[in-house]
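Course assignment 3, question 2. Fill in each field.
Student: A.L.
Task: Predict the tertiary structure for the chain below.
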Amino acid sequence: MKIAILSRKSSLYSTRRLREAAEEKGHNVLIVDYLRCYMNITSHRPMIIYQENALNDIDAIIPRIGASKTFYGTAVVRQFEMMGVFPTNESQAISRSRDKLRSLQLLARNGIGLPVTGFAHSTKDIDGLLETVGGAPVVIKLLEGTQGIGVVLTETSQAAKSVIEAFRGLDANILVQEFIKEAKGMDIRCFVVGGKVIASMKRQGAEGEFRSNLHRGGFAENIKLTPEERSTAVRAAKTMGLNIAGVDLLRSNHGPVVMEVNSSPGLEGIEESTGVDVAAKIIEFIEKNAHNKNKIKDRIKG
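Answer field:
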């Protein structure tokens, strides 16, 4: 098969590992900077052109779309779908997962555990919003934030009001969530491929840091999931319509709660901490499913 990896840089760990895994299995691999693609949108012969060449012989694509480039990146994925190319994650599923509010509403509709979450537009409603999530301390998140950027823990109601007013003053959309104190700065990344959790790691934030992101000084190690955690991760990925997902969980006093479902999860931390060849698992998923063009149908409501 000829597999295209949609990625801005071939030197990125995840891109490099996916390429190595595909080539080890005898596939031809093309790294495509999706921002350099342009499209011919026609009814009978849709095309994608990259470096002056039409990409009309691709069997499958692996989208590695950056959060800040979601609009154009998903447009490229959608064009490949129009051409009958198999995507590991479909364009609608990627867009759905990138909208934090929409994804939380869908997860809640399906009965998946979440931190108590509030959302409001007017700063006149701050007191009621804080009361809705149980009061301070609370976590305030920018809807457009990624990798822990735009996430603030406020210890008091006054601090929360100040942060919310500041964000809303910049016309930024925010979520307010209960602070899961019992998690103690630890979360769990579950890597889901094809409806199964293939690897999981515990991420612990640096001392004094409630965010567990590895690039913020946290560390990771292999962890054994409970059946409920495994089921929650699989259901969360399915709710988003994602074949490949990184599902982030917290262990709360009322069971596992989902913090986020990532459509382009990184491979470096999970492979190093678990020893699982995640890249090979992704290529195996493509081998099993790329021949079935009927699978390119998003059936998620919402």
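Instructor remarks: Residues 114 and 257 are 4 Å apart (CA to CA). The chain has a mean pLDDT of 90.
Grade: pending
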